[in-house]
């Protein structure tokens, strides 16, 4: 077929499965933290592809890595290994607790691997009755049937028939609920070290310490879902490094590839031994293209100056949001850590996060939501400070249009 197709927003409704509701404009070009649409309108990007574009758009190091690898080798499958995958795995073990890495294509697949490993380990070591997985309400762990069931939001998991069993959801930050429920039947506790989709909710020090202590007491594995919090997002390479505890299994994705699809499950040698050849796999996991780009991303994010810069930028965002709130009185609090920021709307603005998102788009600013009552921002970790200032000015104008 050689007929030229006219690509406009209406084509989405014609040819795409309607599980998304995208904005009316179509971005066609990005550079750093700025994006341009089909009409040449410019936007400042505070969304970062939902915490993915950690180095912005078309970062030179990423372009170079992709181009060089694209001229060498694209795909092998896991019948063989490859150099970029081995180099990336080595670097991830050097900057984390992990000794072994499994590569996947997404955060959902990394979490699927983590959950399957936890169940396999428990069955091998303690028997089939040790199978309960504890997770937390308003959590989010992916869209496969297993991970969406473990995620604590029924709206995402209902309506697809019988769900995977032996999964319990407790209230996040509720120490007593966890203490009274966990038992020797529990094989794993899966938790976000800072809830993302659930509203940008940080754990209390007591809660996160208790989670680790109770897992140890009951021989349960602690799984940290760092799909959104990992790769420098909180100012540490992984969020667990700022919490004073270490998980047994960690999942990462999103920012790991800076926009190129890749995920990974990190764990110890002891646990990894329970995934013998044939027990789990991925056709594209460890793809040379993805791993080459991710290696370039990790090299930059792991630098101390990059991580320190995240906290400097967080301070600028918080100061700017406080100034906006002083004018319009719409936020009850600003939550999060590093550049995973959630501005929670007060009672008068309940349910209006999407209104703000749409209004911001009209002012040339891309932002996100974390539910109907939280405005979320997950920009590039190296966004220019002048762009933060300009983006907040555009947010001010967007809110003014709604008052």
Automatic annotation (TrEMBL):
GO terms for biological process: L-arginine biosynthetic process. InterPro entries: Ac/SucOrn_transaminase_bac, AcOrn/SuccOrn_fam, Aminotrans_3, Aminotrans_3_PPA_site, Class-III_PLP-dep_AT, PyrdxlP-dep_Trfase, PyrdxlP-dep_Trfase_major, PyrdxlP-dep_Trfase_small. It comes from the Bacteria. One of its GO terms (cellular component) is cytoplasm. Pyridoxal 5'-phosphate binds at residues 107-108, 140, 225-228, 283. Pathway: Amino-acid biosynthesis; L-arginine biosynthesis; N(2)-acetyl-L-ornithine from L-glutamate: step 4/4. The keyword Cytoplasm applies. Its EC number is 2.6.1.11. It is found in: Cytoplasm. It catalyses: N(2)-acetyl-L-ornithine + 2-oxoglutarate = N-acetyl-L-glutamate 5-semialdehyde + L-glutamate. Its main location: cytoplasm. Its cofactor is pyridoxal 5'-phosphate. GO terms for molecular function: identical protein binding; N2-acetyl-L-ornithine:2-oxoglutarate 5-aminotransferase activity; pyridoxal phosphate binding. Keywords: Amino-acid biosynthesis, Aminotransferase, Arginine biosynthesis, Cytoplasm, Pyridoxal phosphate, Transferase. The modification N6-(pyridoxal phosphate)lysine is found at residue 254. The keyword Cytoplasm applies. May also have succinyldiaminopimelate aminotransferase activity, thus carrying out the corresponding step in lysine biosynthesis. Homodimer. HAMAP family: ArgD_aminotrans_3 (MF_01107). Belongs to the class-III pyridoxal-phosphate-dependent aminotransferase family. ArgD subfamily. NCBIfam families: arg_catab_astC (TIGR03246), argD (TIGR00707), PRK01278.1 (NF002325), PRK05093.1 (NF003468), PRK12381.1 (NF009047). This is Acetylornithine aminotransferase. It comes from Vibrio ziniensis. The gene is argD.
């Amino acid at each position: 077929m050689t007929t030229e197709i006219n690509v406009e927003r209406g084509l989405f409704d014609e040819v795409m499965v309607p599980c998304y509701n995208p904005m009316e404009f179509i971005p066609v070009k990005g550079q750093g933290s700025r994006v341009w649409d089909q009409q040449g309108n410019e936007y400042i990007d505070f969304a970062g592809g939902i915490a993915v574009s950690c180095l912005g758009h078309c970062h030179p190091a990423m372009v170079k890595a992709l181009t060089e690898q694209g001229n060498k080798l694209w795909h092998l499958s896991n019948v063989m290994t490859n150099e970029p995958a081995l180099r990336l795995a080595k670097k991830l073990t050097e900057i984390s607790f992990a000794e072994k890495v499994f590569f996947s294509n997404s955060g959902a697949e990394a979490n699927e691997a983590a959950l399957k490993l936890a169940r396999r380990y428990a069955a091998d070591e303690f028997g089939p009755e040790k199978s309960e997985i504890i997770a937390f309400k308003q959590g989010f762990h992916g869209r496969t049937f297993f991970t969406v069931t473990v995620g604590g939001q029924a709206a995402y998991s209902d309506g697809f028939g019988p769900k995977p069993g032996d999964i319990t959801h407790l209230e996040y930050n509720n120490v007593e609920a966890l203490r009274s429920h966990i038992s020797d039947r529990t094989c794993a506790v899966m938790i976000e070290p800072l809830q993302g989709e659930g509203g940008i909710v940080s754990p209390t020090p007591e809660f996160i310490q208790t989670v680790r202590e109770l897992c140890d007491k009951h021989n349960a594995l602690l799984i940290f879902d760092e799909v959104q919090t990992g790769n420098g997002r909180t100012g540490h390479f992984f969020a667990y490094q700022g919490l004073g505890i270490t998980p047994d299994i960690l999942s990462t994705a999103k920012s790991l590839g800076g926009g190129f699809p890749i995920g990974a499950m990190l764990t110890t040698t002891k646990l990894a031994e329970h995934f013998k050849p044939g027990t789990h796999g991925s056709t594209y996991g460890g793809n040379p293209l993805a791993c080459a780009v991710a290696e370039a991303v990790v090299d930059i994010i792991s630098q101390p100056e990059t991580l320190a810069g995240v906290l400097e930028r967080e301070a600028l965002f918080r100061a700017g949001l406080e100034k906006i709130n002083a004018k319009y009185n719409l936020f009850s609090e600003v939550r999060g850590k590093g550049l995973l920021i959630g501005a929670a709307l007060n009672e008068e603005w309940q349910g209006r996060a999407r209104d703000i998102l749409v209004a911001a788009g009209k002012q040339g600013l891309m932002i996100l939501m974390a539910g109907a009552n939280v405005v979320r921002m997950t920009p590039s970790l190296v966004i220019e400070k002048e762009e933060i200032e300009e983006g907040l000015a555009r947010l001010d104008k967007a809110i003014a249009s709604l008052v």
